Amino acid sequence: MRPQFYDMKMNENDIKEFFNLFENKKIVNNISIQQYAIENGIEIDAYLPGIEKENIELTVLGNVLTIKAERKRDRETMTYQEIALGEFKRSIVLKDFLDKNSISSKLKNGVLTIRINNKSKEQVEGKKIVID
């Protein structure tokens, strides 16, 4: 009976074959964010270096804001990699006092800035209904 790990030598083809196992798999990683209180709401900075605007999706469902992004391989001849590729996703629960209809965003230098205004006083407190 021979040992399970009898030869630890790997050639270039072995290494390529190993990494090809992961080629078609989507890995979901967290997106780093920072949140700031601003005069009339909040701003969220999501750090997405190297990701183009076309590969970012921002959605709201109920009180959940979701950021999805995908970083694709930029060259086929890559021989070494430290930057994660694939899909990234981050969901953020929004407080009730935020106006989900006021969400705006911009991408600059790899930082997606999302701005969400507070609801108006009437939206938060409601209004009195006159009974006929």
Tell me what you see in this structure.
The protein is mainly β. The chain has a domain at 24-73 and 81-119: Sandwich (Immunoglobulin-like), CATH 2.60.40. 11% of the residues lie in helices and 36% in strands. The protein has helices at 12-20, 121-125; strands at 33-38, 41-47, 56-61, 64-71, 86-93, 104-108, 111-117. The protein has a 4-stranded antiparallel beta sheet, with no helix packed on it. The protein is elongated and about 80 Å long.
- The string of secondary-structure elements, in order, is HEEEEEEEH
> What is the number of helical segments per DSSP (H or I, 4+ residues)?
2
The first-level CATH class name of the domain at 24-73 and 81-119:
Mainly Beta
Distance between the termini: 91 Å
Shape: elongated
| β-strand number | 7
> What is the averaged pLDDT score?
81
**Class by helix and strand content?**
mainly beta
Strand order of the largest sheet: 1-2-7-6
The appropriate CATH architecture of the domain at 24-73 and 81-119 is Sandwich
Which range does the strand content fall in? 35-45%
Low-confidence stretches: 1-6
Query: How many strands, which pairing sense, and closed or not: the largest β-sheet?
Result: 4 strands, antiparallel
CATH fold description of the domain at 24-73 and 81-119 = Immunoglobulin-like
Our Rg estimate from Cα atoms comes to: 23 Å
**In which range does the helix fraction lie?**
10-25%
